[in-house]
Amino acid sequence: MDARERILTLLAGEEPDRVPVLAGEVRVGPPGGWVPRLTARGLGLLRRLCPYRPHFNFPAAFQTFLPGIRCTSTYYLEGGRMKIRFTLETPDGEVSSVLLLKFTGTLAAYAREEPFIKLRADWRAFTCLFRTLTRVLSPNYDDFTREEETLGGRGFVFGYLTKTAYPRAWIQLANPDQAVLDFKQMPAELEEFLEVERAFHQRAAEIAAGSPARVLNLYDNITDMVSPALFERFCVPTYQIYAEALRGTGKLLAVHMDGRLAHLKEPVARSPIQLIDSFTVPPVGDLPLSEVRSAWPGKVIWVTCPPHLTYMPMEQVRQGYEQLLDEWGDRRLAIEYVEDLPAAEMEPHLETVLDVCGYPS
Q1: Which stretches does DSSP call E strand in 290-357?
Q2: Mode of pairing for the β-strands spanning 70-78 and 81-90
Q3: Which domains does the chain show, CATH number per domain?
Q4: Which of 1, 70, 117, 144 could form a disulfide with 174 if both were Cys (CB 3.0 to 4.6 A apart)?
Q5: 102-111, 246-255, 345-354: range with lowest mean pLDDT
Q6: What is the mean pLDDT of the chain?
């Protein structure tokens, strides 16, 4: 099997000849020679493309061209630190956010210094943004098809879907404490935003259902910042919108859940999610694979390269992956490089994973 065939076999619920080992985009700078060397051994490449356009994904896709809306970014040094001020100007208000930026190997790391949402009235700017997005949203199928043709048997293209309401709020728009308070008290400004954002997801789901994508992935970064009550009230209803749109298409609904999930074991089991993307094993995560297998039967699990193995000697890396595969028990699992390994560690780490999974040298 080639890399794409392994992935499609896994998505069909069957056992591929080897556990798929996958690598996503390198986020900063050229990837280097490890890509051709490891793809020659069978490493699969992952690409992520949104099936609709335009889309808002802060900060990666902030520069969105929309009628009546202006998005600007200002880059500057302050006290020796790199900073970016993002400003969103809409007919219903202007908001801005400041991020600190640091480059570490292949990673562009952001730390929020100032959120967009400072007052409840600030939600109106994003209500305007998403109302406009919904009005102009259109398919992005041609780019998707070209990317699949470029990869061929070397990899797979995910359909990238932007976040549901609460993850979007606490990760991208507001400080976590402000997000929790507003979603608890539900001021009128937030209620209006949620209504408009729901309409956005309904339109996005229609377009996604007609796309060439085999997997549609909501990048919600679910972790213990999201309580069971918030998950079931503000995430699951949006998952259901997509699940209904995808019904009968043969496409799978995925959610990027790269955090601590033990408190959500039962809500996730009840949800329409079919693929758990970027699952994090203990000790950084808190849900053992043995429990995952019994709690979420029928869901496809893609495990991110375990963060606790990142800086380990290669022999310990090997033992860690051997333990992971032994705990899972068969080849119906994928291992994906999603989070950023140090540049010097990337090739030896992924090469060790390929060794453990039985790929030829």
Answers
A1: 300-304, 334-337
A2: antiparallel
A3: 3-57+120-356 (3.20.20.210)
A4: 117
A5: 102-111
A6: 94
Q: Are 246 and 327 in contact (CB under 8 A)?
A: no
Does residue 29 register a pLDDT over 70?
no
CB atoms within 10 A of CB 160: 23
Contacts of 320 (CB under 8 A, 6+ apart): 306, 308, 309, 312
- Are 167 and 226 in contact, with CB atoms under 8 Å apart? yes
280 and 289 in contact (C-beta within 8 Å)?
A: no
Burial grade of 229 (CB within 10 A; 0-12, 13-18, 19 or more): exposed
In this predicted model, what pLDDT tens digit does every residue of 276-303 receive, in sequence order?
999 999 999 999 999 999 999 999 999 9
Q: Of 226, 219, 276, 256, which Cα lies nearest the Cα of 56?
A: 219
Tell me the angle at which helices 236-246 and 188-209 cross, rounded to the nearest 10 degrees: 20
Give the model's confidence band at 28: pLDDT under 50 very low, under 70 low, under 90 confident, else very high: very low
Q: Is the pLDDT of residue 60 over 80?
A: no
Question: CB neighbours (10 Å) of residue 266?
Answer: 11
- Could you give the CA distance from residue 326 to residue 222 in angstroms, rounded to a whole number? 26
Task: Name the one residue in this structure whose structure tokens are 């570490």.
Answer: 104
Torsion of the alpha carbons at 324, 20, 218 and 274, rounded to the nearest 10: -80
